[in-house]
Amino acid sequence: MGVKLSIDDFGTGYSSLSQLCQFNIHNLKIDRSFIAGVDKDINKGKIVKAVISLANSLNVGLIAEGVETREQLNFLRENECTTVQGYLFSRPVGIEKIEKMLVKHEGD
């Protein structure tokens, strides 16, 4: 059917490790609360590294939410998190603006 599942806000609320066993998950999204200060807080850094390792070992995609600083981006890159989203790149935009951004990017 082409349906793929992602666990949003992984590590918080109702998301849990048991979901990784119950469902055929394609992506994990690390909650922004772990990304905020990840470059300064040793424990957050260890948790994010563990989630990256978990995703890699399960062969699922990984997305880091809430990237707002170059330092956070550098930490994630250094630890092999390849997909990120957040205000560092763009504030939320409407469909018309995203279309213009994509067309402009194609010309680069």
Terminus-to-terminus distance: 35 Å
> What is the overall number of helices?
5
| CATH second-level architecture | Alpha-Beta Barrel
Q: Mind summarizing the main beta sheet?
A: 4 strands, parallel
CATH class: Alpha Beta
Number of domains: 1
CATH superfamily: EAL domain
Overall 3D geometry?
globular
Structure in words:
The chain has a four-stranded parallel beta sheet. The protein has a single domain, classed as TIM Barrel (Alpha-Beta Barrel), CATH 3.20.20.450. The model has no long low-confidence stretch (mean pLDDT 86). The chain has 108 residues and is of the alpha/beta class. Helices cover 45% and strands 17% of the residues.
Task: Please give a handful of descriptors for the protein shown.
single chain, 108 residues, TIM Barrel, four-stranded parallel beta sheet, 45% helix
Short précis:
This protein is of the alpha/beta class.
Strand and helix map with partners:
Layout: E1 5-10, H1 17-22, E2 25-30, H2 32-35, H3 42-58, E3 61-64, H4 70-78, E4 83-84, H5 95-107
Parallel strand pairs: 1-2, 2-3, 3-4
